Amino acid sequence: MTVVLTTACAPDGDKLDYWNKALTRTLVPQAVTPRVRAPFSGQITSHRLGYLQVSTIEADPQRMSRTHRHIAQSDGTFVSVGLQSSGRGALAQDGRTAHLAPGGLVVYDTTRPYTLDQPEAFRMHLFQLPRRVLAMPEADLHRVTATALPPDAGVAGVLTPFLTALTTSAGRFSPCVGEQLAGTVGGLLAALISEQAAATGPADRGSAGCDMALRVRGYVNDHLSDRDLSPQTIAAHHHISVRYLHRLFEGEGTTITRWIQQRRLEECSRELARRGRVSPTVSAVAQRWGFVNAGHFSRAFRAAYGMSPREWRSATLTTLQSAGGPRPVPADR
After folding, report:
1. CA–CA separation, 247 vs 238, rounded Å?
2. What is the CATH number of the domain that holds 238?
């Protein structure tokens, strides 16, 4: 669904207040200070692809500031990527300032204060995703925020054209495809952060811990359907303590238990949205990917995707049928 919020629908005296509320509703709480005396003009268009929010802002010169007070008002923690389309701007966070020209790419973290200054009329694309899906060490993310990234070098050279394409096509995808695209953005962003952190950080960045974390992820992905998968069984298999296992994931901004659930939900969402002649029941899909309790699965799925498993499958089915795809035949319920 596409959501468009524009100051054109507000009286001149209410435009700035409307704009502040529009940005808070779409992105995160923050304050806008206009750089023009005339009635403020701005428009934000947003789409949802799984857990990824894709937004385009077109507005008069302004300064967007997020303070500790705004952070205290927020429910979630997000990482955002800004892609400057027109105009020139500057993003300040963590003691650094990234100066943005058209085509410039920048990363920032909504859990800490920042300022995004746009001294001239501008157009900017923003891609916002939950901090937890990256599972990156906090130290790595801190090294990358408010750093101007060359849009044609390294991982940024892959990520930039991909994000640019999403800005024009985000509203055309089915829920299943949107969720997969969100995963692609998350993977590319994690690779970008790792690349930049490796280039700016010390050579001995705890490679043994990184290697163990990779081994654990591979093991979890291979055993997602195992109902007995737990921190205890994972730690025993890798001959490490449960405490050390938790430390590996605490350093990446999540927990091992939360990451296992996230991966299981991702696999369930893909299977529920898969086209085919026979559609498995929701409970069968949940059990196949390690969920024992159906009520817990439904609550976790709704918290992650904003709809129940059955609503997710129905939304995907509707999209497929409107596109002329085959009609799945439900299994016995």
Report:
1. 14
2. 1.10.10.60
